[in-house]
Amino acid sequence: MTIDVGRYGIWRGQWDLSPEFAVEAESLGYGAIWIGGSPDGDLALAESMLDATERIVIATGIVNMWKTPAEEVAPSYHRIAAKHPDRFLLGLGIGHPEAVKEYRSPYATMVDYLDRLDAADVPVAGRALAALGPKALRLAADRTAGTHPYLTTPEHTREARRIVGEGVLVAPEQKVVLDTDPERARALGRPRVDRPYLHLVNYRSNLLRLGWSEADLDDGGSDALVDALVAHGEAETVAARLTAHLDAGADHVCAQVLTPEGVDPLPALRELAAALKLS
């Protein structure tokens, strides 16, 4: 693929992103910012962050196929790609059945959506698919530049690489807390894992496939599960957990830094960048 997202990136909800944040992230050496929270089809936030920066890639993580028609997002893609060649990656996903009353045949919906993007000349190399299970991972490999799995572990990354093969982008998200106190870190991470994800069938099914038990997933998640899904410790420890995804076959891993409400994440991102030796 021609879009170079680098080895390490940042995942952050759209409501906590701005052009100013993108400038700082670029200066720290991160390769990409993934916009979470089902950004709108006009892709205005992505465009504003690209306009403010020179190098960093902006990706959506994800545009929700149920919320935004392909015919709406395609012109936005072309506008941005023409303005900022090789710096925008259109991450797409199906969401989850609990959020959509009309949720039907997710696989067929993904195929149809990708067909419509093909018809609108959105290139395979410019898009990625959020995928967890084997069937969706194979679709990502066949019809997009790669996959952006969310709420996963290096074990899932290893399996994703086996399924998609070489030459396909594997770019998982990893939640992190820079805190050496395990209880405090879990108190911050557990609510972000539990709600909504441990109550959604697609995420539960994926974790069960990875060998976790129903008991691990219930009641807010076991300590072992929370520790697996939310890396915590000093910056060097967290950096090693991110690198474990690369060792398992990922091309890129994006850190979602969790902080208490109202706390600026940039100090933690600076510490993490230093531990990762990004600059």
From TrEMBL:
Gene3D superfamilies: Luciferase-like domain
Source superkingdom: Bacteria
Domain Luciferase-like, chain residue ranges per copy: 20-117
Pfam families on file: Bac_luciferase (PF00296)
Protein name as catalogued: LLM class F420-dependent oxidoreductase
Organism: Pseudonocardia adelaidensis
Lineage per the UniProt record: Bacteria, Bacillati, Actinomycetota, Actinomycetes, Pseudonocardiales
